[in-house]
Amino acid sequence: MWIRHKGFLEVVLKSWSQPVVGEPLFVLNSKLKSLKQELKSWNKEVFGNVVTLVETAEEEVLLCENQYELSGTEKDKAALLSAKEKHLASLAIEEDFLAQKSGIKWMKEGDKSTSYFHSVIKKKNRKKMIDGILDEGVWINDKDSIADSAIKYFQSAFTGGIEVENEDQLMDLIPNLVTTEQNEMLMANPSIQEVKDVVFQMDKNSAAGPDGFNGVFFQHCWEIIGSNVHQAVCSFMAGNSLPKGMSSTVIALIPKCEDFPRFYPSGFIKGRVIQDNLLLAQELIHPLDHSTHGGNVLLKLDMSKAFDMLSWKFLSLIMTKFGFSAEWIDRILACISNSWFSVLLNGELAGFFPSSKGIRQGDPISPGLFALASDYLIRGLCAIMKDSPACAYKTKCKMIIPCLAFADDCLIFGMVLKLHSQKQLCFWSTTKLCLDR
């Protein structure tokens, strides 16, 4: 909505030009905070209430039409055309505003769809409204009590250390794959063009973070803010810490039941194609009841809030064994360990607390880190099958398939046999602790 207005970039440039002294990360964070306040004031002054803006424009068109019908002069005709242009502009602003609130991304162009957006917004608001919650068997519906319960649950879920056991057995499963040249490439400062390419790959209609800025802001204002963004990235790569304002996250709840554990979505890796695994799983289920020694068995593992429960120490050990440099691991841990959360309840933020485990949903590096953790699970299962071939799932296919991964579930194929290997027991113990399967 704002980027349509010709004065938007002027406000951004004026605010951004104010001098700020400090580290590049501090400078960027401070400029964003100042700009947020400037834009709030500008929005109130220029746009005000969007609905009122449209109604005022409509009234002006009616007045100009009546005046032109009475006089028929060129001056009144020009005034009428100007009023109609303002009315069309106000309608475009209203549509942008409602489209953003509704979260509709598939609609690109066409007739005005404000009534449709209104219905979507009302439906979303009804779905997201939390009127009451079941807390330890007691139903509560007081606003403050619900907020306190949410903070207590998520603060408990995202904190608490996880001790990694059997580190020697863990390290045996992971090969050293990352070369010195690759580590040097990872730690090299990116060029401003590389940073720009990443910024312009962002979804411009993505939901804004706690700072209020989304992808379209950084893309539309790149010529003004690009230099500071690049300097901040290079400063972080040099070892400086992220300010709290840059590492804070909002927990958006999806009400599906009566208690908080199932309000929060499980981890999902965007772009992962699971159709092939679905077809393969259907084929592998057929020999499940075949007559074999011990019998085939299929285990379904629900990765309990997989992103949220991942151990940071476990990730550090995995990356070390793969061959990532200590500097790179330090930068990754700086991204995930400096996380602060607030819970979004009925349109209002509640709480502000840190985490001591887990990775954030929506963070671009989270799928890659989760893939590393999943790789340990797959390698461990393959090691068990190699160590005890009798444990392998019996099919007519010569290829052994130990497991299939889905969005937040994993199917493990094997045989019903007693496992006596200490190595196998250590693997399952570490898996439970580090991945909370």
Helix fraction?
Answer: 40-55%
Which structural class do the helices and strands define? mainly alpha
What is the element string, with H for helices and E for strands?
A: HHHHHEEHHHHHHHEHEHHEEHEEH
In this structure, how is the largest beta sheet organized? 3 strands, mixed
- Binned strand content: 5-15%
Number of strands: 8
Mean pLDDT across all residues, rounded? Answer: 78
- Roughly how many Å is the radius of gyration? 28 Å
How would you describe what is shown here?
Residues 266-414 form the Reverse transcriptase domain. By secondary structure, the protein is mainly alpha-helical. It is built from 17 helices and eight strands. It has helices spanning 8-16, 24-46, 50-71, 74-102, 114-128, 143-157, 167-172, 180-187, 192-199, 215-220, 222-237, 244-247, 275-285, 312-322, 326-337, 366-387, 422-435; strands spanning 133-135, 138-140, 248-252, 296-302, 340-345, 348-354, 403-405, 409-415. The longest helix has 29 residues, at 74-102. It is globular and about 100 Å long. It starts with 7 loop residues before the first helix and ends with a helix. The mean pLDDT is 78.
Please write out the topology.
Elements lengths: L7 H9 L7 H23 L3 H22 L2 H29 L11 H15 L4 E3 L2 E3 L2 H15 L9 H6 L7 H8 L4 H8 L15 H6 L1 H16 L6 H4 E5 L22 H11 L10 E7 L9 H11 L3 H12 L2 E6 L2 E7 L11 H22 L15 E3 L3 E7 L6 H14 L2
Parallel strand pairs: 3-5
Antiparallel strand pairs: 1-2, 4-8, 5-6, 7-8
Helix pairs in contact: 1-2, 2-11, 3-4, 4-5, 14-15, 14-16, 16-17
